[in-house]
Amino acid sequence: MKRVPSPLFLVGALALCFGLNAMTGRFNAYYVDVALNIGIAIVMAVSLNLINGYTGQFSLGHAGFMAVGAYGAAAVSLFAGPKLLVTFKFLGESGSHAVVFFLALLTGGVIAAIAGFAFGAPSLKLKGDYLAIVTLGFGEIISVIFRNVHKLGGALGLTGIPNETTLFWTFGAAAVTIYVVLAMVHSTYGRGFIAVHDDEVAAQAMGINTTRYKVIAFVIGAFFAGVGGGLFGHSKMSITPTGFGFMLSIEYVVMVILGGMGNTMGVIIAAILLTLLPEVLRGLAEYRMIIYSLLLIVLMLTRPQGLFNFRNPWKRQRKAA
Amino acid sequence: MSEFLQQLVNGISLGAIYALIALGYTMVYGVLRFINFAHSDVLMIGAFVGFYAAPYFPKDSFFGGIGVLIVAMIVCAIMGIVIERLAYRPLRKSSTLNVLITAIGVSLLLENGAQLLFSAKPRPFPQIFPSQALHFGNMVVSTNQIAVLVIAILLLGALQWIVLKTKMGTAMRALSFNPIAASLVGVNNDVVISFTFGLGSALAAAGGILYSLNYPSVDPYMGIMPGLKAFVAAVLGGIGNIPGAALGGLVLGVIETFVGGSERFSTWRDAIAFAILILILLVRPAGLLGKMQAEKV
């Protein structure tokens, strides 16, 4: 059994991100942009892995939570931002911007988490395919809601979001996501997630409140999806209700499946590769979704444990027995 | 009042299409206990087959339209059987999650394959039936709507006959009760499952063509929305239950048309189906006509 990762890992990772960030100016702007996309993909895929992988609940609405977070964070930056910047003026130019951006990301995450709770608490009683369809429906409803809220730009979306997302924020968020997910799953409390995944009925018989575990996984996953959305909005500088559709959710699901459900390292590799692949193979852009879909089918037929999951399933079973 | 009747007619005609598509979901769920995600894309393929077949049939005649419909149904039936054989059958013994992911993969493959083949550009669907607007007082009913209703009722009747009166239908029902017991009494499960996929896909093709007639454009992603809504209809009526799917389709079609036609809530039209889905799963997960069952371990 893996141990809970040490908090030193997190501190080290954050320091590394800070150092990396100081060198941003030396990199080509295009590479920085790709790196930001990779960081956001890691945040999204690792948080989805908590729901789909470790807890075994199949969510197809992760982009919906991303949308909630993106809108929440953008609203803070756009509507409350100017006032907050004045309030935190004593921290200096970059200090006040950092604080406001942190607050925006936090708000986005918290709103997404609340949405995750409001939506997850009733629907997580459902299983498998039903849950998948309901989460898919959630993604669609979110998009319809944002299209109808005129304060948030309606169908046109929000534009003019300040460009605050940097390498530090993105990879910092990725490090925090990875740390929190690993620390939770490998803690004593977190064994419950895996128990729910392995056998729900048996877990229930052992006195585990399965619905509660599922809702917690959902809320935490949604929180980080919201943070990812905030990062996304503040790096692209504009968001639209249709930008967070089913296809985006599918992309994160593919990352989780490719990496091996419940295998954080593999999911991170998959997130990096799948973000890089379309950049490297620009000419193949129109075949990208075909490759994804074939990959899904072939993987499920031949290697359902994921492409980057090198743990031997047989070995694990023997250990358990 | 006349507006109410008008919306009711529109709603029933939309609902009949949902019902046809919902039947495919429900039948496959009945025999295999899984949601065929790719069903909505079979519908799209059906519409495209209709689009390309239409020029070869006499225009503006009822029989030409039926011809187009039959060609699309046959092509899609074959496609449904092939999909089941290649993608789903090898996974018969794996977990539901794996089958679900494969189904999503098949769905994406069909959508993006169609986009590559036919391009993403929406195209106007030809009027394969003689089209005319009939006036009843203030009400306007297009012949297309009548054609949709008549064809839907005929197909539903045919399906009911197949399921209740033929040997294959009996085998389908046996399989949905208990697959192991069915195979013990000599039902060839593989053949029955193939047949179910063929039947469901043929109905999806018919639904796709009728949908394109009323919302006259076809594109590779056209199947997603009617497919999802038809799924909601199947759950609403009680998944696995054939009359339930028909009822669910009609109810959903009527509700959606009234919401879409209302002044205040017209923009919420696409959300209403999912709101119904979440509500029904919470209040009565077995659906309107389904039987509540305790879960067995």
Features:
heterodimer, A: 321 residues, mainly alpha, two-stranded antiparallel sheet, 13 helices, 2 strands, B: 297 residues, ABC transporter involved in vitamin B12 uptake, BtuC, 71% helix
Q: Would you mind describing this structure in some detail?
A:
- The complex is a heterodimer of chains A (321) and B (297).
- With 321 residues, chain A is an all-alpha fold.
- Chain A has one domain (7-246).
- Chain A is built from 13 helices and 2 strands.
- Chain B is mostly helical.
- Chain B has one domain (2-283): ABC transporter involved in vitamin B12 uptake, BtuC (Orthogonal Bundle).
- The longest helix of chain B has 31 residues, at 2-32.
- The radius of gyration of chain B is 19 Å and the shape is globular.
- Chain B starts with a helix and ends in a 14-residue tail after the last helix.
- Chains A and B meet through helix 5, helix 10 and helix 12 of A and helix 4, helix 9 and helix 11 of B.
